[in-house]
Inverse folding.
């Protein structure tokens, strides 16, 4: 059976690795992006060159209308949706809480919490057996920051991922009898561009000494865990928070 997956934030880093891996696993892929159309189209091109099918869809996770438009595009252009990866997320410049603006907090929580909730809502409407769907899987990309709290740097980001962990557990129980499994992957420090967007492009190399395995992770290592959770090999796994963090 042909089926499709939406990967939010699928143009770079972890999202890109998940999108490419999903195509290899047989999914038709919606590569979502917020701003970088060129990067998204390059992922689509790589998938198509390898014989897969993919589309790039711009949608800002802070805008409900964009999210609805993305799901409508998948409905009309790809096979039935059976998987969602809530990967899109932002981090801001390192700051203590007493220096965080309202604008920063609203942007952080809307992007990292509200967006995934809206995407999950729309995916459930399509995948749930209670809505006439055939079931499916949702994987939320959280962070080990939800455990560490990220003091003096990203307490707001950590809090947003703590919310994602709670959402994962609650939603998993809510839709378990409707054929949908919901899990989260919690990456540690991974070699991606997100650190540069937070003003710390060398962050992985600076912090890898605190990781028991003494190295940063690669996006493909997060992708492998995500795709396992979506696969039939994880058929009895739901509500799980899977740390992929080198032991941190």
């Amino acid at each position: 059976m042909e089926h499709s997956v939406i990967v939010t934030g699928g143009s770079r880093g972890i999202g890109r690795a998940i999108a490419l891996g999903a195509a290899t696993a047989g999914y038709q892929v919606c590569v979502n992006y917020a701003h970088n159309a060129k990067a998204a189209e390059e992922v689509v091109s790589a998938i198509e060159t390898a014989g897969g099918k993919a589309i790039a869809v711009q949608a800002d996770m802070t805008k409900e209308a964009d999210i609805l438009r993305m799901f409508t595009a998948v409905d009309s252009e790809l096979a039935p949706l059976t998987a969602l990866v809530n990967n899109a997320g932002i981090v801001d410049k390192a700051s203590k809480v007493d220096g965080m603006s309202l604008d920063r907090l609203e942007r952080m929580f809307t992007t990292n919490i509200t967006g995934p909730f809206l995407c999950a809502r729309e995916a459930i409407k399509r995948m749930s057996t209670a809505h006439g769907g055939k079931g499916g899987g949702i994987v939320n990309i959280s962070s080990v920051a939800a455990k560490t709290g990220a003091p003096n740097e990203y307490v707001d980001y950590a809090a947003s991922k703590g919310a994602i962990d709670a959402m994962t557990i609650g939603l998993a129980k809510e839709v378990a009898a409707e054929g949908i499994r919901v899990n989260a992957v919690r990456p540690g420090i991974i070699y991606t561009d997100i650190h540069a967007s937070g003003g710390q492009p060398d962050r992985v190399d600076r912090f890898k000494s605190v990781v028991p395995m003494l190295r940063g992770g690669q996006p493909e290592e997060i992708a492998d865990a995500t795709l396992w959770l979506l696969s039939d090999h994880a058929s009895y796994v739901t509500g799980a928070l899977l740390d992929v963090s080198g032991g941190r």
